[in-house]
Amino acid sequence: GAGVSQSPSNKVTEKGKDVELRCDPISGHTALYWYRQSLGQGLEFLIYFQGNSAPDKSGLPSDRFSAERTGGSVSTLTIQRTQQEDSAVYLCASSLARSGLAEHYEQYFGPGTRLTVT
Amino acid sequence: AQSVSQHNHHVILSEAASLELGCNYSYGGTVNLFWYVQYPGQHLQLLLKYFSGDPLVKGIKGFEAEFIKSKFSFNLRKPSVQWSDTAEYFCAVKRGSQGNLIFGKGTKLSVKP
Fold first, then answer.
1. How many angstroms away from the CA of B90 is the closest CA of chain A?
2. pLDDT digits (tens, 9 = 90+) for A68-78
3. Which of B34, B51, B99 sits opposite A50 (nearest CB)?
4. CA B83 to chain CA centroid, nearest Å
């Protein structure tokens, strides 16, 4: 079946502009995650949506970052007033997360959006 | 701070050599453990996972990992690497009821033909 998809695959923007990154999770997956992969920094958790619960925003690096998930499916990560340090690959993942079974929390990753802030 | 440590930044091996990549975590509660692989130009793929039961888990492509609770470790092994194993490998931990994964900084593996 279809995996996690993300768009755009590449985005170049000028410092100070706002950007929106989109994630389409695997159909039927109730949990959706955003991570950031920076050179030499590994993967950094940003935000996590689980069903209708309030999202876990504990990883967002500043108030310039926000995300929403509409209809329990598609998610948009918005970065306002972009800075050069925001340049990274932004990864989205989803998991089934429908029960207490640990296996349902296995995360499937999308290809990422490479953001370059000039 | 709770963290995941991967000891090697870059490992270079010849084909047929044995591989062991270290991973240690600092969280003391219940954990689920994962190794992900990222081949050049591709997205992250799950290599193997530990949830419970037998601490020696086998994954795809001949990889295995052993969970040693007393050492807070989950090292990745492969007895004989191939050139096609050239990739970056990430260890990740899911802590208790927390939803997100905490990743190590990754180990780049280069296999010389």
1. 8
2. 998 879 999 99
3. B99
4. 18
